[in-house]
Write the structure tokens for this entry.
Amino acid sequence: MDKKTYTGGCLCGSVRFSLSGPVDVVNCCHCSRCRRRTGSAYATIVHAAYSHFQFTEGEENIVTFNPDGWNSRRFCGSCGSPLPGWDEEDDEVGIPAGLFDEGLDVSPSLHIMTASKASWHEISGNIPQYEEFPDDW
């Protein structure tokens, strides 16, 4: 994913973005917040440098939910789709993988927060699993 620009957006199309840089990591997070946010067993998040990311349409339609002062969730105010989260200070963006218009050239490389995974879900495959955040995260 070095020089290719990827595009994506929410379900209704009012919020659009592009990513034009390498992906740092793709993780599958099994924490209860990600499960509730996605309504599924886990969230697959693409992490990249925020400096390679930009909203191209509808930034004014982004709603932020910040229940505890540190773990903000952003979503489309029209359709409710989860949207990228970012930390400009750390130059990082986390993009829900399902928002991209086309396939990515990378695959998930780890499962995190598996200690709180859904009891009805069995993790398959052979990528590393971490009960919490990895030490070098």
Notes: The two ends are 21 Å apart (CA to CA). The mean pLDDT is 91. The longest strand covers residues 23-29.
